[in-house]
Amino acid sequence: MAGAQEDVHPQKAFGWAARDSSGVLSPFNFSRRATGELDVTFKVLYVGICHSDLHFIKNEWGGSDFIDASYPAVPGHEVVGVVTEVGKKVKKLKVGDKVGVGCMVGSCRSCDNCDKNLENYCPKMLLTYGSTYYDSTPTYGGYSDIMVVDEHFVVRIPETMALDATAPLLCAGITVYSPLRYYELDKPGIHVGAVGLGGLGHMAVKFAKAFGAKVTVISTSPNKKDEAVNRLGADFFLVSRDPEQMQAATGTMEGIIDTVSAPHPLLPLISLLKTGGKLITIGVPDKPLELPVFPLIMGRKMVAGSGIGGMKETQEMIDFAAKHDIKSEIEVIPMDYVNTAMERLHKADVRYRFVIDIGNTLKAA
User: Residues of the signal sequence (predicted)?
Assistant: First the structure.
């Protein structure tokens, strides 16, 4: 299998892949396609580790409508680097530019969603890993030395932004930015709750504050209060397991961004919303959540979802982050630490995003 993957395309590539649902990653030789007329080839320098990577390599979403892992699986969809080659019809990028690729590398470009710059909701969207590309080969993610991507699905990163702390914005950043914008939680003075203070949650705090919102972090861990308020700038901190605190906060929020990727009750969160409030779920638990309908009806409240953003909005998010100096709080790790990092991520032992230093530590076998 490895030999076949090495020979499919002309560009030799090297990365780390999972071979089965154990999720253990190890060195993997494969290949990338030649740079096409509309393609951008770039050297990968950093890649963030998203909780989705962990779900994927363990096939914890297997059999779902979302994604079913196939092996070898090279994860990574928070990918940043520097352009090394562009196709002759590429217009917006040039060799030497700092660029990034998020969760998708293709879409049909002709459906209603694509026409509205919502490629992320295209029925034929191609994920950065775990999809089958137009040439019938699997897509491989950014735990690798190079990427070749259609320029439409590549964002330009401003020179002022540090690549390592920018990488998680390509998934975690846009995943919180998009619902804040779409559900109109981006207005000064609005009270927004952020459930969970992990990779997504800390980004929700930063973007909501940059929009001028009043922000409450909602967490099961009382020991995160100092971090949330004094380091990240949240206005309030709410312990969701404290009935008195929850009661005091009943009906105080216009919106809540729920980032938790583990099964958890929704009723306590719904109670925090004002009439007409919106609970937006962006975490992806591996088991269905129970949705109580009666409190929704009595408060004309909404439970909704949101998934990343289209390419236009992703570039908008990056430019907004550059303007407001928004970056992810990261722990940079070498490539050979990745399996330990996955174990720590499973235990939520990271503040708040692991980023692999591909450029300096990925060594070809």
Answer: none
User: Is the Cβ–Cβ distance between 162 and 138 less than 8 Å?
Assistant: no
CA distance 191 to 235: 10
d(CA 193, CA 70): 37
- Residue 267 burial (C-beta neighbours within 10 Å; 0-12, 13-18, 19+): exposed
Q: How far is CA 68 from CA 62, 76, 177, in A?
A: 4, 16, 27
Contact 331, 355 (CB under 8 A): yes
DSSP 148-163: EEEGGG-EE--TTS-H
CA pair distance 217, 344, nearest whole angstrom: 22
Among 71, 65, 360, 325, which residue's Cα sits nearest to residue 206? 325
* Dist. CA 255–CA 192, nearest whole Å: 5
Cβ distance 272 to 193 under 8 Å?
yes
The letter for the amino acid at 334 is: P
Rg (CA), the chain: 20
- Hey, how many other C-beta atoms are within 10 angstroms of the C-beta on 235? 16
Structure tokens at 30: 């494969």
pTM over 0.70: yes
Q: Two tokens at 235?
A: 């206005």
Q: How many CB atoms lie within 10 A of CB 131?
A: 16
Which pLDDT tens digit goes with each residue over 154-211?
A: 999 999 999 999 999 999 999 999 999 999 999 999 999 999 999 999 999 999 999 9
